[in-house]
Amino acid sequence: MAQYFTNQELKSELRKWKVSIFNNTFTFYTDNGVFSKDHLDFGTRTFLENLPLEEMRDKKILDVGCGYGPIGIVLSKLTNASIWMVDVNRRALHLAKMNAKENGVNNIEILESDCYQNVSSLKFDYILTNPPIHAGKEKVYEIVMNARHYLNPEGKLFIVIRKDQGAKSMINDLKQYYTVDVIAKNKGFFIISCFLS
Ligand SMILES: C[S@@+](CC[C@H](N)C(=O)[O-])C[C@H]1O[C@@H](n2cnc3c(N)ncnc32)[C@H](O)[C@@H]1O
């Protein structure tokens, strides 16, 4: 099976669709070889609907594994935060740039980066991730456990993960470094918040 994070050779079939979130309509370009190419992923939507948007207003936010850009672009519109988005999938990054433009979002940096590699000199108020489960536990843990090095002292990490993708053991493991709360559960998706303890 072709996996969405190593797909540069896949034939392009650009598509464009609209989605409504909090009564705002967003337009997204997607393509073969990127995560959730036909619709806003239910986990991504659940994530967006449960983040503390008010406290994120005007803050500095990193989305690790941004895909075609839905999390960062929606947050940019709704919170006016400064957004950084990173991914390893060049096609996804190209789409994320198109989508930022299409949705009139300017305060956004979109970079190729394996986890924190190319943002390692920065600190963020929030790090958000819908992590690449297919990349394997080691990579997912690199994202969630190392987030602490790139957070401001009051910073928070938010994660969306499905119960059957190892949410419970991840929560236990996160407690090694963070104060952890499950802030929402919906149809098997857990939304996890992590504060530096
Ligand atoms: C589950 S998808 C989420 C995409 C998007 N945030 C969303 O919610 O629709 C995970 C993303 O992580 C990306 N990814 C995989 N390995 C990565 C790595 N080492 N560093 C950064 N991103 C990675 C994948 O290319 C994919 O776009």
Task: Give a short overview.
This protein has 197 residues and is an alpha/beta fold. It has helices at 42-50, 53-56, 70-79, 90-102, 137-146, 167-174; strands at residues 15-21, 24-30, 60-64, 82-87, 108-112, 124-129, 151-162, 178-186, 189-196. The strands form two sheets. Strands 5-4-3-6-7-9-8 form a seven-stranded mixed sheet, with helices on both faces. A two-stranded antiparallel ribbon has the order 1-2.
Do you know the CATH architecture?
Answer: 3-Layer(aba) Sandwich
Mean of the pLDDT scores? 95
> How many β-strand runs?
9
Counting structural domains, the number is 1
Question: How would you write the strand order of the largest sheet?
Answer: 5-4-3-6-7-9-8
The low-confidence runs, each spanning 5 or more residues with pLDDT under 50, are none
CATH class: Alpha Beta
CATH superfamily heading: Vaccinia Virus protein VP39
Helix coverage percent of residues?
A: 25-40%
Distance between the termini: 40 Å
**Biggest sheet record:** 7 strands, mixed
- Computed over alpha carbons, the radius of gyration is 16 Å
**Class derived from helix and strand content:** alpha/beta
**Which small-molecule species are bound to the chains here?**
S-adenosylmethionine
How would the global form be characterised? globular
Total helices: the number is 6
CATH-defined fold name: Rossmann fold
Structural overview:
The protein is of the alpha/beta class and 197 residues long. It has a single domain, classed as Rossmann fold. It has 6 helices and 9 strands; from the N terminus they run E-E-H-H-E-H-E-H-E-E-H-E-H-E-E. The protein has a 7-stranded mixed sheet with strand order 5-4-3-6-7-9-8, sandwiched between helices. A two-stranded antiparallel ribbon has the order 1-2. The N and C termini lie far apart (40 Å). The model has no long low-confidence stretch (mean pLDDT 95). The structure holds S-adenosylmethionine. The site of S-adenosylmethionine has 23 residues, from helix 3 and strand 4.
